[in-house]
């Protein structure tokens, strides 16, 4: 019956539920749990979860490292929530904002044994919902009954897990002429993924020859830099310099990928900025929040380029990972074109950290 939502549609629903603080029913073949994002959990729902069983908060090993909690599950830790704690305690495990003021939340005890599959699934969903990677879970016995009685989204681990690591098929929705300051011969294409995720944009300049390497830029969204003219990064100047370069040559393609904050979303990026104000660098801040340094998937850039008919690029970048990922996904990088613009007194340390820790070329 095609009217039933498929697994991608259920995942999209689950993302929206987590953002709204609605519980999910997560299941493997043998166990089930209710899962709520630690960020959007309310005191009422925490109270109700406690009526059902003893909840744990699942965090990433990155966050666990900062909190000195044992990640018995490798990349994930399931931290026991003591009975006498309130929502503030749960939030402070999830959110590093007050780490320096109240460094001791523990000792934190992590759950050992049993499967961490549902914890891992919950965290992956929270990341894809651009929330803090922390989820409160309570075991239940009858997943189907909870889902039916309360109208909750029910996700099976074995079905959902492969889709969370995969990038979705992307379809062009529309394209139209867009005269710009950098070039009057602009054209904007909108791509919409089938998994209900973010749309991405391709700005084509001129009519690039598909049989030759095209001057290309994979630009990740940066609201603060691109729109507000933030001095903390080099994104705005890079965006404009790339477009101007393409305008001068009369041909090029710029992909504007909605992977704000290296894939963690704007709210989490601002949390990272607040940590940077406390003295942590851009990489340390991501780790304290529980993220990897870079959560982006550049393969989708290669997918869009191929959709547009390009198989070879002259890539404007200083990031070797973008080059490696393009090549791995079957788009040849015929040349790397450096893009060094926009250094300020505010971003000098940020750029130096990217060079030192993330392998960016100077
Ligand atoms: N998490 C986090 N993201 C940041 C920070 N500063 C900038 N960003 C994001 O980093 C991304 C910048 O990406 P790109 O312009 O593709 O830069 P890049 O990976 O350094 O590669 P090239 O510019 O091609 O050399 C954007 O998504 C920004 O929003 C930060 O301090 N923390
Ligand atoms: Zn930026």
From TrEMBL:
**GTP cyclohydrolase II domain: residues covered:** 174-338
The UniProt keywords, alphabetically, are: GTP-binding, Hydrolase, Metal-binding, Nucleotide-binding, Riboflavin biosynthesis, Zinc
Query: Can you state which reaction this protein catalyses?
Result: GTP + 4 H2O = 2,5-diamino-6-hydroxy-4-(5-phosphoribosylamino)-pyrimidine + formate + 2 phosphate + 3 H(+)
A single GO BP: riboflavin biosynthetic process
Q: Which residues form the active site?
A: 294, 296
Which pathway, metabolic or otherwise, does it act in?
Cofactor biosynthesis; riboflavin biosynthesis; 5-amino-6-(D-ribitylamino)uracil from GTP: step 1/4
Residue positions annotated to bind Zn(2+) are 222, 233, 235
The cross-references to InterPro entries, in alphabetical order and at most eight, read: GTP_cyclohydro_II, RibA, RibA-like_sf
Instruction: State a GO cellular component annotated for this protein.
Output: cytosol
For the protein in the UniProt heading, the enzyme class is: hydrolase
Reported EC number(s) for this entry are: 3.5.4.25
Q: How is the cofactor bound?
A: Binds 1 zinc ion per subunit.
GO MF term list:
GTP binding; GTP cyclohydrolase II activity; zinc ion binding
> Which residues are noted in the entry as GTP-binding?
217-221, 238, 260-262, 282, 317, 322
Cofactor(s) needed for function = Zn(2+)
- Superkingdom, according to UniProt? Bacteria
The record's family statement is: Belongs to the GTP cyclohydrolase II family.
Q: Which PANTHER family match?
A: 3,4-DIHYDROXY-2-BUTANONE 4-PHOSPHATE SYNTHASE (PTHR21327:SF18), GTP CYCLOHYDROLASE II-RELATED (PTHR21327)
Q: Which NCBIfam families match?
A: PRK00393.1, ribA
Protein purpose: Catalyzes the conversion of GTP to 2,5-diamino-6-ribosylamino-4(3H)-pyrimidinone 5'-phosphate (DARP), formate and pyrophosphate.
**What is this protein's record name?**
GTP cyclohydrolase-2
The species this protein belongs to is: Pseudodonghicola xiamenensis
